[in-house]
Amino acid sequence: MDKQERDFYQRSPEEQASFLEQTWCNQCQEADLGMTDPIEYEQEGTVIIEGKCKKCGEPVTTEIFGEDEDWD
Ligand SMILES: [Zn+2]
């Protein structure tokens, strides 16, 4: 379960904004509440953005599929 860190802030402002808005919070059981403090990493081929729910502060994660960009 190796995590490979990526830099969320290398994304365009538009992408950052949409990832920060399009969330699902398991705690609130509600979509698009937004997140703060995003970190991005890759785990087993899946890119994950992890932050905190704006509403309750619990961790929320967004998995990104179909991204085959090379980040080296
Ligand atoms: Zn929440």
Number of helices: 1
Order of helices and strands, N to C? EHEEEEE
| Largest sheet features | 4 strands, antiparallel
Mean pLDDT: 92
Count of the domains: 1
- The helix fraction, in percent, is 10-25%
Instruction: Catalogue the ligands.
Output: zinc ion
Write the SSE topology:
Elements: E1 3-6, H1 13-21, E2 24-25, E3 30-31, E4 35-43, E5 46-53, E6 59-64
Antiparallel strand pairs: 1-4, 2-3, 4-5, 5-6
Zinc ion binds at residues 25, 27-28, 33, 53, 55-56, 58.
Compose a concise summary of this entry:
The protein has one helix at about 15-20, and strands spanning about 5, 25, 30, 35-45, 45-55, 60-65. It is mostly beta strands.
Account of the 3D structure:
With 72 residues, the chain is mainly beta. It has one domain. The chain contains 1 helix and 6 strands. It has one helix at 13-21; strands at 3-6, 24-25, 30-31, 35-43, 46-53, 59-64. A 4-stranded antiparallel beta sheet has the order 1-4-5-6, covered by helices on one side. The protein has a two-stranded antiparallel ribbon with strand order 2-3. A hairpin with a 5-residue loop joins strand 5 (46-53) and strand 6 (59-64). It is globular and about 30 Å long. The mean pLDDT is 92. The structure holds zinc ion.
Features:
72 residues, mainly beta, four-stranded antiparallel β-sheet, two-stranded antiparallel ribbon, 1 helix, binds zinc ion
